[in-house]
Each structure stands twice: as structure tokens, then as C-alpha cells.
Design brief:
The structure is a single chain. The chain has 8 helices and 6 strands. The protein is an alpha/beta fold. It has a single domain, classed as Purple Acid Phosphatase, chain A, domain 2 (4-Layer Sandwich).
Length: 191
């Protein structure tokens, strides 16, 4: 009897490369038929964001149909900062200072509002273009025959394709599963 393909899901890596690599190596995954879904939040807080991103780029390069990486709110905050749409990425609770320091080899050092434009330029210059383009290509959701996969949650009664991406990346609805009766939904974001 042939085994059915499996889907393995990992959420919120947050730059923890050693733990991520160890977890991926432990999975009993048949790379030819099983799918690995990463639920986003790859950057900030951990000790090797550049390594995590490089590893994921390589994993996807070798198995583009079998490795799915979604966009989380931390990738979106970083892109919004680079694109000049928001400076939320600089908030101390986000953990962006570690991401910057790992790419730049020095602290970001933004103490006053006037430094934001300079910081934005530095971030855009120091993160490899391949990594920035990787973030830009990340989809907001994935669906297979068995489930929906998003970073944070769904808008009740709506398919992810009909949901504002902001909701898919930022939702923290504690009552979600009390009111949701659709296709199984797998998400991370909320500890």
C-alpha cells in the first residue's frame, strides 16, 4: 500500500537557525512527495536571520513545489520599513535590531525620528537583494486538499483569497475555533 503524501508545518522560526535546521532534519519527510510549509515570521528576535533565509532559499530552490514559505507580519513590517510605508519594524518589541545587526555587523542605532530615513537606506542596502526579493515573493496563504495554511488566521467565513492580507498576518482571534467550521486551518503567530 502506497503511503499518502504528508504535510509538515513549522511556524514562527524568528531567526533561530540551529533549532530550525534540527527540526527539519528530524522530520520523517519524503522530499519527493511530502510538503513542508513554513508559516512565516522568519526574521527578528533570533540569532541567525540571514542563515535562516539563505537556508530557506536553498530548500525552495531544490524543491520548489514541496517547500512553501508564507509571509508573516515580521516580513511585512520589514518590507514596509524598506519601502517607506511604516516604521513599526523599529519598535523595540519587534526584535528588528537583532536582524539588522546580523546583516550589518553593527547596531542600527536609531535614537531619533530624524534618523529613520538613514536607517531605511542602510537596511535596504545591507540586506542582500536576493533576501528582499524572497520576502516580496512570499504568498499570504497556501491551500492543499486537506487544509488552509496562513500565518495568523482567517476572517470568519472567508477563504484566504477573499481576506485582507493584513488579517492573514495579524489576526489574534482567541475565539476563532469556537466559530470556525470550514476546512481545517493551520496557523502560527500567537504563542
Amino acid at each position: 500500500m502506497k503511503a499518502s503524501p504528508k504535510t509538515f508545518v513549522i511556524g514562527d522560526v524568528h531567526g533561530r537557525r540551529a533549532q530550525f535546521k534540527q527540526l527539519v532534519e528530524m522530520l520523517p519527510r519524503d522530499e519527493a512527495k511530502d510538503t513542508l510549509v513554513i508559516l512565516g515570521d522568519l526574521v527578528d528576535r533570533g540569532d541567525d536571520v540571514p542563515g535562516v533565509i539563505s537556508d530557506l532559499i536553498e530548500l525552495q530552490r531544490g524543491q520548489p513545489e514541496r517547500v512553501v514559505v508564507l509571509r508573516g507580519n515580521h516580513e511585512q513590517m520589514l518590507l514596509d520599513f524598506i519601502d517607506g510605508r511604516s516604521d513599526l519594524w523599529l519598535h523595540p518589541a519587534v526584535g528588528s535590531e537583532l536582524t539588522f545587526e546580523q546583516y550589518a555587523g553593527r547596531p542600527l542605532g536609531v535614537a531619533v525620528r530624524e534618523n529613520y530615513d538613514v536607517a531605511q537606506e542602510r537596511v535596504a542596502q545591507l540586506i542582500p537583494p536576493e533576501h528582499i526579493e524572497f520576502f516580496r515573493r512570499l504568498p499570504f496563504y497556501y491551500e492543499d486538499d486537506y487544509a488552509l495554511y496562513v500565518h495568523a488566521g482567517l476572517d470568519h467565513g472567508k477563504h484566504p483569497r477573499d481576506t485582507d492580507p493584513h488579517h492573514l498576518m495579524w489576526s489574534r482571534d482567541e475565539d476563532f475555533f469556537r466559530r470556525y467550521y470550514g476546512k481545517p486551518c493551520v496557523f502560527g503567530h500567537t504563542p
